[in-house]
Amino acid sequence: MSVVSSLSDERRRSLTSVYDEAVRGKRRRLILFLAVVVGLAILAGWTADVRLLALAENIGRFTSYIGRILPDLSFATFFSDVAAWYWDFGGWLGLLVETLLIAYLGTLLGGLAAFLLCFLAASNLVPNAPLRFAAKRTLEVCRTVPEIVFALLFVIAFGLGPMAGVLAIALHTTGALGKLFAEVVENIDMKPIEGVRAAGGSWVQAIRYAVLPQVLPNFASYALLRFEINVRGASVMGFVGAGGIGQALVTAIRQFYYSDVSAILLLIILTVVAIDLGTERVRHRLIGLQGAH
């Protein structure tokens, strides 16, 4: 305060002017940024034919459908109502288990492929640019095509059934996990690798003894997160005939079995929530273990 008060009036006015100009510049940039965001949002909405008036006019249809799929439950006959609501519980449970197995197998196969490819895509491990380029582009292709499109292609190639769903999830998981794994590898401490190589260790031995101890907790954490995502993805594979609970769901939607739709959706939601809670605890434990080291 004493420094400011000791300034001459001219110097104070000069500093105030510079400060005001800096504040105005910040505001101009903020306004320009907001204008660009709003402009792009309007352009995207116009291109995608998003009409707010149509949304407001037809929102009632959505709420009406939600109302129709809800079951009639009364307190006096609650258990018999729930039994009637879940009249095909055994069949749906079997399809749900199939969905979980599709997600599990797809995550396992995709995770193994991602594990092998991520080291070739890491710039700090592979100096050969063409090899790194090929590995990265392969991962990009795998994760660029949506799982449902892969599933449709595999259904055409191999026929209806869970195998198409497993292959679709495995391929997409390879691309998604491979990128995450490669980024983890690129951020490791290089000193242990230099130590192994200085002792005459090969490239494979450097990965085994210097890289894996640093990256495994993150790899496991990302794989569990991917399994959660894949359970949700596997739930809609049945829409294109690739097995799982989605098959029963799309049949119920098409044939207007309203209460069946809500029963299947509730089963899927409860399963996903249970898996989310379980894997979240494991992931936090893995991250905690990594932090402790």
List the topology elements.
Layout: H1 2-5, H2 9-47, H3 52-69, H4 78-85, H5 89-121, H6 129-144, H7 147-158, H8 162-186, H9 191-198, H10 203-234, H11 246-254, H12 258-292
Helix pairs in contact: 5-6, 5-8, 5-10, 6-8, 7-8, 8-10, 9-10, 10-12, 11-12
Task: Describe what you observe in this structure.
- By secondary structure, the protein is mainly α.
- It is built from twelve helices and no strands.
- It has helices spanning 2-5, 9-47, 52-69, 78-85, 89-121, 129-144, 147-158, 162-186, 191-198, 203-234, 246-254, 258-292.
- The longest helix is centred in the first third of the chain and has 39 residues, at 9-47.
Average pLDDT figure:
88
Radius of gyration, Cα only, in angstroms?
Answer: 28 Å
- Poorly predicted regions: none
The CA-CA distance between the termini, in Å, is 47 Å
β-strand amount: under 5%
- The portion of residues assigned to helices is over 70%
**Continuous helix count:** 12
SSE run: HHHHHHHHHHHH
Structural class: mainly alpha
How would the global form be characterised?
extended
Total beta-strand segments: 0
Q: How is the biggest beta sheet arranged?
A: none
Can you tag this structure with a few keywords?
extended, 293 residues
In a few lines, what is going on in this structure?
This protein has twelve helices and no strands. The chain has 293 residues and is mainly alpha-helical. The protein starts with a helix and ends with a helix.
